[in-house]
Fold:
Amino acid sequence: MATAGKVIKCRAAVAWEPSKPLVMEEIEVAPPQAHEIRIKIVATGVCHTDLYHLFEGKHKDGFPCVLGHEGAGIVESVGSEVTKFNPGDKVIPLFISQCGQCRFCKSPKTNLCEKGWASDRYDVMSESDTRFTCKGKKVLQFMGTSTFSEYTVVNEIAVAKIHPSAPLDKVCLLGCGVATGYGAALNTAKVEPGSTCAVFGLGAVGLAAVMGCKNAGAKRIIAIDINPTKYEKAKVFGATEFVNPKDHNKPISQVLHEMTNGGVDFSLECVGSVAVMRSALESCVKGWGVSVLVGWTDMDDFAARPIQLIAGRTWKGSLFGGFKSKDGVPKLVNEYLEKKVKLDEFVTHNMTLAQVNDAIQLMQTGDCIRSVLSVALQ
Structure:
């Protein structure tokens, strides 16, 4: 690549401050340093976590930044000491690293890693170090990835090399939303064949959780959302029933108890609301019910009566679906290519990076499942 070793000037959507529209700017992307990879981003999804940082978290030290963390692209150049990636490789940047050396990476119990932004900067949601500048100012790389830019630089411990035939405008969704929901059902909840499941929230993460429940062999999958138009989509992924809490004058947990003879075996909260998290727990059957928190939030405390857990329920959380990132994502890409995992059905809108604010508005109004933005030409 003729650009190797040089600063690249390219287009990016910059979030200069919280709660304001993103601005298309020309930014400078520095060459990769040791163990880093510069990636040309071909496609990116728009995920609720991008909106969370912009409109809810709003941490003043987290701006200006380039959002986006659900992308796929092609290696443009590599820094020194990078041996497993070459220019031209198709890759997915990862918001959870997998260094392979820390105590978490070495444990089969978790997919966390001690390296990268996620180890101690959950509030700011980016590292202090960045390879981006714009108008003379340092611009942070959101979640270590920043896929709302034509080029980004990511440490090799947070990049997955994927199958060369993978369509980047589809597999980008495995960088966050689909892997998160699908793995929460399979890896975290460990949904069992013949079980009854409830999924709260039918965005991309929730629909992926529905798909995970189906692939795990669940018998009943109850999809729950206040938007009735989501049910037809949920059926595509395997939902057997739909409940709209607005149709009932009693708590949703009571409705589910009555539908299931005392509660569901597994529930997954895919909204990011502490009130819904409590409802999901209370919807589980006593004795063995498992409820998993999947929706991302760090704004409020959650609460429940201790008897809920004393009576045998389990309450647990899931980050990136429990997948060890560099190992899991290439396998998920292969499962998509083998038609074992759906991706095309999540994409309701195809847009350009310049339309990112329109895509954000679609997500705010609930009028899309996933918008995929074309970023740089392949």
Q: What stands out?
A: DSSP finds ten helices and 18 strands in the chain. Residues 265 and 289 are 5 Å apart (CA to CA). The radius of gyration is 20 Å. The chain has a mean pLDDT of 94.
